[in-house]
Design goal:
- This protein has helices at residues 3-6, 13-36, 58-64, 68-71, 86-97, 143-180, 229-242, 268-278, 358-361, 372-382, 388-402; strands at 40-45, 53-56, 102-109, 115-126, 132-141, 191-198, 206-214, 217-225, 253-255, 263-265, 289-297, 302-308, 314-316, 323-324, 342-346, 352-356, 412-419.
- The chain is α+β, with helices and mostly antiparallel strands.
- It has three domains: 22-141, PAS domain (Beta-Lactamase); 145-180; 182-419, Phosphatase 2c, domain 1 (4-Layer Sandwich), CATH 3.60.40.
- A five-stranded antiparallel beta sheet has the order 2-1-5-4-3, sandwiched between helices. A five-stranded antiparallel beta sheet has the order 6-17-16-13-14. A five-stranded antiparallel beta sheet has the order 7-8-11-12-15, covered by helices on one side.
- Strand 9 (253-255) and strand 10 (263-265) form a beta hairpin.
């Protein structure tokens, strides 16, 4: 072999020294980088019993409060404590036993006993032959984030509990509200009644009732309180109680010395005026209500009614086309000195009267077009041959179909009566 060429296989002494110096500099740089890292970094020796620590950086010392001399040679489990989740420690043990990486969030304890949340990742290190020789652990203090997550979870749980309580309360209130509505059509010779109330919310702002007033007089009303939800339902509930058949506590009666029981039935216009005085609109809430109230004289088949900001009733005469009846008047509470006009309608066998709230005609389709009064009249005429309750059901179905199946944006309420032609002199109590 040519020695001249052989000498080129070995670097000169000064080059070798320079290379060794660079290697030491790189090692020192790695040490400085590890010590300067914000995270805690540890290395354990998997070849020794109980996998002891052989290196910890300055970040680990800052994080845990332990010095390197206190922890080298020990297994890292000394950071665990009574509040550490056993399931998490089991996951770490299983990963180390299986010689695979893992990442967990574990509650650890510092030297002074304070706790911190540790985002711990463990990675095995293998030699050139494949066996695991060491594990590297990287630890990050995530206490602030974890506490925020826990606080958020607790707040969500409290909110959910509050929502459940509110939901139960709303369901109970809805049952009470439903109990105030007529439970079944009253049996009366010569007339049939039917109604339908579809609430857009858990609680309705609409309410209605049918009640015997005196002798052959039957009162019926439909009310639509502005707004939705609890505020409107509370006023609706109050009105339902005040418009009761108990004279001493009802707005439907006035005192009369000439009557046997000291009370007389008030006219629809008088009832509207009294309600308007009693319930002025509160400008802070802008809450008011509309009303249609009628008194049906069963003996004379005469209906006296008043409307206060309410859609006009619809008359379907026997054998004739449906038409809107006269209606006028401000909503209750809007005008302090408002007067209310009373209308009188004589009925005959086969006539139907439909009262409804504006949720019927104001329901919009996907093109933002209202169902409208003309479509209501056409639907009422189309299903005229149906009996009274199916007739109302068909109208509600048409309104829902018009909305495209979307949730109602307002309560939809209908109240109807039909003169059947039976003996109108007999009366069966409601």
């Amino acid at each position: 072999m040519n020695r001249k060429h052989e000498r080129h296989h070995h670097p000169p002494p000064e080059a070798a020294a320079k290379s060794i110096g660079q290697d030491h500099e790189i090692l020192h740089l790695k040490d400085r980088a590890l010590d300067g890292a914000a995270e805690g970094i540890v290395i354990s020796d998997a070849r020794l019993p109980d996998n002891p620590l052989i290196y910890v950086n300055s970040g680990f010392v800052r994080l845990t409060g332990y010095s390197a001399d206190e922890v080298l040679g020990r297994n890292c489990r000394f950071l665990q404590g009574p509040r550490t989740d056993p399931a998490t420690t089991d996951a770490i043990r299983q990963a180390i036993h299986a010689e695979r990486s893992c990442r967990v969030e574990i509650l650890n304890h510092r030297k002074d006993g304070t706790i911190f949340w540790n985002d711990l990742s463990i990675t095995p290190v293998r030699d050139s032959g494949g066996p695991v020789t060491h594990f590297i652990g990287i630890q990050s203090d995530i206490t602030q984030r974890k506490n925020a997550e826990i606080a958020l979870q607790q707040a969500k749980a409290q909110l959910e509990n509050a929502n459940q309580r509110m939901r139960r309360n709303l369901e109970a209130a809805a049952k009470i509200q439903q109990a105030l509505l007529p439970t079944h059509p009253p049996e009366m010779a010569g007339v049939r009644f039917a109604w339908r109330l579809e609430s857009c919310d858990e609680l309705a702002g609409d309410t209605m009732n049918l009640l015997q007033l005196d002798g052959n007089l039957v009162g019926l009303y439909l009310i639509d309180v502005s707004g939705h939800g609890v505020p409107s339902s509370l006023l609706s509930f109050t009105l339902n109680h005040l418009l009761s058949p108990v004279p001493a506590q009802s707005f439907l009666y006035g005192r009369s010395e000439s009557r046997p029981h000291g009370f007389a039935v008030l006219s629809p216009a008088e009832v509207a005026r009294d309600l308007n005085t009693r319930f002025p609109m509160d400008m802070r809430t802008a809450q008011y209500f509309t009303l249609v109230y009628g008194i049906l004289d069963m003996r004379r088949l005469r209906l006296r009614y008043v409307t206060a900001g309410h859609p006009p009733p619809v008359l379907l005469p026997a054998g004739g086309a449906p038409r809107r009846l006269e209606a006028a008047g401000f909503p209750i509470g809007v005008m302090p000195e408002a007067d209310f006009e009373e209308y009188v309608l004589d009925l005959k066998t086969g006539d139907r009267i439909l009262f409804y709230t504006d949720g019927v005609v104001d329901t919009a389709n996907e093109n933002d077009e209202d169902f409208g009064t003309e479509r209501l009249l056409a639907t009422a005429a189309q299903h005229r041959q149906a009996s009274l309750q199916p007739w109302l059901d068909a109208i509600v179905a048409a309104v829902r179909a018009w909305s495209g199946g979307h949730p109602l944006q307002d309560d939809v309420s209908l109240l109807a009566l039909e003169i059947t032609g039976a003996d109108n002199h007999s009366f069966i109590h409601l």
